[in-house]
Amino acid sequence: MSPRGPWSRRASFSLAENRLAALYAGARADASDVDDLTCSNPTKVALHAPAELARLVAVQPDYDPDPLGPSPAREAIAAFARGRGRSVDPARIVLSASTSEAYAWLLKLLCDPGDDVLVPSPSYPLFDYLAALESVALARYPLDRREGFRVDVDAVARLVGPRTRAIVVVAPNNPTGTLVRRDDAQALDALAADRGLALVVDEVFADWLHGVPAPALLPSFAAVDAHAPRALTFVLGGLSKLACAPQLKLAWTSVHGPEPLAKEALARLELVADTFLSVNAPVARALPALLAAQPRVADELGARLAANLAALDAAIAMRGAPLGVRRPPAHGGWAVLVEVPRVHDEDAWVRLLASHARVLVQPGWFFDLDDGGTLVVSLLAPPERFAPAVDRLLDVVAREVA
Q1: Looking at CB atoms within 10 Å, which of 42, 108, 275, 354 has the fewest?
Q2: Which of the four pLDDT bands, split at 50, 70 and 90, describes residue 238?
């Protein structure tokens, strides 16, 4: 047996290849013949606006770091938020290189090793790695599928333990695409305030909603008409999703809540940020111009998301519904769920679709969906590729249930 390496327990996660990774890699080897509906990288799907945004970044020789991020950048974020009906104070914004880094900083700020945070299920699996790297435990609270993946506030309350430090909310959730109800948001805020917890709200997809949300839904925890938070609340966003520009590496955290608590949190978070100074200065300087150009991204990608969602719904209504195929309602985001007949397990469906339809999708179990019959489909593909891929997907389903 080889000796144990020098790394910590927090970095001892398995390096074994995911059982679907080889399948995806083999299918992608002939990219011209495969429609990859797992793709969540906007730089890989022929979007023109993000390339235009990248040209706005200019390197300047001087560097005068501000731990919170350059003031003009933070003011531009606040102005952009106000234009979308959100209340954000530029003095309460902290820039980071990514939302993943923002999570890491917040875990450092809020948690000692061995403490825990509550995260939604289903959700994106990145939380496991972020928590492990900070020696923090996770407890998963359910989103009630029977009620459109609504937050189960009672379950959240039951999961709060003596070492719980924060509740993570993702809105719209990835991959369900669902927002939080206003009354549930108020209940989470009250629970967090009463138990001395923080709320960490990931809103990276908040600008990619499928139409105007119903009045009962909260479009943003920073919305001007949102309930004034009693709990310390951190709201996350970034260029990766907002501007389809993950390569520009800039994200932000806005701090909300009672003044004394938020002021102290900001001061402590500033010290964490000052320790790393990871924000890319040219991108931060260019941020006002990048945000001014973002509407061009919104026009291009928004039209694509709407076209692909409409094509998927039309195909399911015409061919899929009689086969037992269904798309649960979603409020926003770049991915949707597609329920398929349980004549196979999810891995078998993924293999069949890759081999017989030349379409790549993700299994629901990857996101903690445990019903055994849900696939996750990205809406980012060009419409001229997406609609035929959906048709081929339904061809395979029809053959398998015949």
Answers
A1: 275
A2: very high
Q: Answer whether 311's CB lies under 8 Å from 35's CB.
A: no
The pair of three-digit structure tokens given for residue 342, joined into one six-digit string: 């349980």
Structural domain contains residue 7:
no
Contact yes or no for 37/361 (Cβ under 8 A): yes
Q: Using a CB cutoff of 8 Å and minimum separation of 24, what contacts does 350-355 make?
A: 350/20, 350/23, 350/375, 351/23, 352/396, 352/400, 353/393, 353/396, 354/23, 354/24, 354/27, 354/34, 355/27
pTM equals 0.90
Residue type, position 311, single letter: A
Tell me, yes or no, whether 307 lies in a domain: yes
Q: Which residues pair with 368 in a beta bridge?
A: none
Using the predicted structure, report yes or no on whether residue 54 has a pLDDT greater than 80. Answer: no
Q: What is the pLDDT of residue 252?
A: 98
Q: Which residues contact 388 (CB under 8 A, 6 or more apart)?
A: 35
Shared-domain flag, residues 202 and 344: no
pLDDT digits (tens, 9 = 90+) for 20-39: 888 888 888 876 788 999 98
Q: Which domain holds residue 337?
A: 16-48+294-401
pLDDT-based confidence at residue 305 (cuts at 50, 70, 90): very high
Closest to 148 (Cα-Cα) out of 106, 201, 184, 186: 184
94-130 pLDDT, tens digit each: 999 999 999 999 999 999 999 999 999 999 989 999 9
Rounded to the nearest 10 degrees, what angle do helices 281-315 and 71-82 cross at? 30
Q: Which of 264, 293, 322 is the last residue of a domain?
A: 293
Does residue 11 sit within a domain?
no
- Single out the residue in 293, 309, 334 at which a domain terminates: 293
Residue 121 phi, psi (nearest 5): -140, 120
* Distance, C-alpha 148 to centroid of its chain: 18
Give the Cα separation of 217 and 233 in Å (integer): 18
Q: Are residues 242 and 176 in the same domain?
A: yes
Is residue 300 within 8 A of residue 47, CB to CB? The reply is yes
